Amino acid sequence: MRIAFLGLGRMGLPMARNLLAAGHELVVYNRTRSRAEALESEGARVAGSPAEAAEDAEVLVTMLADDAAVERTVLGASGALATLPEGAIHLSMSTISTALSRRLGREHAAAGQAYVAAPVFGRPEAAASAELWVLAAGAPEAIDRARPVMEALGQGVIELGEEPETANLVKVAGNFLLSSMLEGMAEAFALVRKNGVDPELFLDIVNGRLFRSPIYEGYGGLMVRGGYEPAGFALKLGLKDTRLVLAAGDESEVPMPAASVVRDRYLTGMARGLGELDWAGLGRIAAEDAGLDG
Known about the structure:
Elements: E1 2-6, H1 12-21, E2 25-29, H2 33-37, E3 45-46, H3 50-54, E4 59-62, H4 67-75, E5 89-92, H5 98-110, E6 114-117, E7 120-121, H6 124-128, E8 132-136, H7 140-151, E9 154-159, H8 165-194, H9 199-210, H10 214-225, H11 235-252, H12 257-271, H13 282-289
Parallel strand pairs: 1-2, 1-4, 2-3, 4-5, 5-6, 8-9
Antiparallel strand pairs: 7-8
Helix pairs in contact: 5-8, 8-10, 8-11, 8-12, 8-13, 9-10, 11-12
């Protein structure tokens, strides 16, 4: 398929590589052009703007940091919406708000284009090995046409109905569960460390006897080692996603008090200049609050 791929960050670059490896024809755009040029030797063509990238695309893929980046790249001046051909599909794989997802659906429908929300679960290493889980919501026909793209990127596609924003809601709700787990783990590690218990032993006990989870094992290992750099998923993005889930709760009149606690913990990290750490850096914040070394 002819794909325009916009956004070559820590997730987008390996995803684009997997699409090239699967035999798709890619035109790529990134604000930092050098990241796009890194794919030229692998067969991608580099565009000078989102509009140029989208001109002949069958599928437009966006993998960008936040609402502002998606709005700018798709709807702004030199944005992709204006040049994306009629009948083409925008496969929005960014973690964005439900409100923006609804707006994108309206804008694409008015332009005669299709829109599928398809955010993913998985860290950069899962993106590199094509082991992401793709959440897809939109018109069934559009999902079916975009399926070869999604299947080249992950280990499975989970369909969530015809309202695109449903996929975005599920994504931010899932990330909220991960953030809540990180906060609970951070507090527990701080407690046992303050009382002289080896945190590695504690992790082995709770993840080997109480329950077993690769998520606990992976993130617990980061906290035990203090391995917060380089970030697989930055703390500042954890704050962004927590704000998104709180906004969804406000819209649905669903109180989310735990999400408010997690948001404040992320804000503490931002105030301390820790926004570029992995979001497991909540462990460092909890440790410092307990008078321990992070």
